[in-house]
Each structure stands twice: as C-alpha cells, then as structure tokens.
Design brief:
109 residues, DNA-binding, 13% strand, elongated, alpha+beta, three-stranded antiparallel beta sheet, homodimer
DNA sequence: ATAAAGTGAAACCATTTGGTTTTATATTTC
DNA sequence: GAAATATAAAACCAAATGGTTTCACTTTAT
C-alpha cells in the first residue's frame, strides 16, 4: 500500500472497507482495535486504510494514553459533492428533491 | 487492467482520466479517437478506461459505421449521491450551495 | 480491389494496492 | 519492574491497475 504519495478523496472512498470505516466513525470516536473487530483482516491492514483516509483528510486522530482515537472529518466530501453537482442535469430527481429540501428549511433569501 | 470482474461506480470515478472522460461525454456523443486526442496516452488505454466506465454503467455506446459512439449514462451516480447524503449531517454548507444552484437554474416550481 | 480509417484483442510490463507476518516501542496495570 | 495492552514499522507477497506495442478485423473511400 503506497502511503508515501497523497491520496485524494475519490481514491479514498473507492474501497468498500474504507467506506465502511467512515460510516463507523460517523458520530463516534474509535480506536483501531475497535474498528478492526468488524473486519476480516488484521489490525495492520485497517491501520493502512486509516492512513489513506488521513491523507485524504477524511479522518483525524488524537492520542489518548496508549490508544489512538480516530474521528470522521467529513468536509473533504464537499469536493465529491461539487463534482457530482456538475452531472445533476444529466439525471433526474436530485434537483427536485433538494429544491424541496431548501424550500422547507432555508428561508434566508 | 482487469476487465473481467465488475467495477462499481466508486472505483470507476477514482481515476482522474475517467472523471475527465465523463465530463467530455456530458452532452455529446464521442468516438474513442475523439476522446483520445485530449489525453497523453494511447487509444488502447482510453479504450480500457471506457470499458471500466461501461461496467459501472456510466457510459453506453452504439456502433455507427466503423465508429463506436459513447454517451454518458449518469444514473448510476445516484448511488454516489445517496452514499454522500448519509454524511450530510457531518459537514456544513451543502444546503446553501445547492440553494444557490436551484435558484439560478431550476425555475419550474 | 486496395488503401485508409477506426476499432478490438492479446501479450507484456512496471507500479500500486490490499493484504500478511514479524519485530519493536510506548503505556498501563498488577 | 514485569506482564499485558495498543499501536507502529518493516519486509514481504499476490493480484490489480494503468499503461504499452503489435497484430487482426471491419467499414469506408478511391
């Protein structure tokens, strides 16, 4: 696993294991060991996935005693969202759904 | 390039060349040769990228004489959009961005 | 009917990817 | 301080990825 060069968001979410890790981290801080129990692979492998997610800016971590706690950093997903929005016009139902959402929630304009 | 196993949308868009191909195909039909001139790689390489995009359902093609014309099929991107929406609550400013989008482009309601 | 244009398919190659095992280091706990 | 816990780091490996070159096959144009 190449950890030397930068990974971007698109690459980071290409792997199903990494996508699942992101969901696990949604909301709660977890240590590597806690994440690993959910996967049929070694802690080392999970650690490498976390490194790739870190490089993409999707997770951050802090040391707490002998543990290292990871948290989700969802902001970089905005790049994905922006990319996706370019294609909005080529498939239906997104605009209408969001229009509804905006009209119901955002009144400041 | 493994073209035997299925590729999903997440994998398909992980490569920048493939993302650019998708943008090129947004709106217009193109033959492989027309796509290739935009990239510093062989027609064969582009052809393989198109195969991966096909497997992900993101492009389709039709034969026209000795040419093969490719078109965008954006629908599978909805899977990505759905995945992304799960994380909406973890980053801000999506609503505002789309509000702007809707107000500028969609007037049908 | 040949030549040219457009593509497909096969064989090959270097690098990256996703995993492993082994060894070492830091922090608790008893 | 010794054992247990949590992680890091390094070496290794098979398969996938992204590319190439070469050759064959259709379709069109002259």
């Amino acid at each position: 696993m190449n950890t030397a060069k930068k990974h971007d968001v698109f690459q980071a979410i290409a792997d199903p294991t990494r996508r699942e890790i992101l969901k696990m981290l949604a909301g709660k801080e977890l240590a590597i060991t806690e994440i690993t129990v959910r996967f049929p692979m070694s802690r080392t492998a999970v650690s490498k996935h976390l490194l790739i997610l870190s490089e993409a800016g999707l997770v951050k971590n802090r040391k707490s005693g002998r543990e290292k706690l990871y948290t989700l950093q969802a902001e970089p997903l905005s790049e994905l969202d922006q990319w996706l929005s370019y294609f909005d016009q080529f498939w239906q139902n997104k605009i209408s759904v969001l229009k509804h959402l905006v009209e119901n929630e955002g009144q400041n304009s």
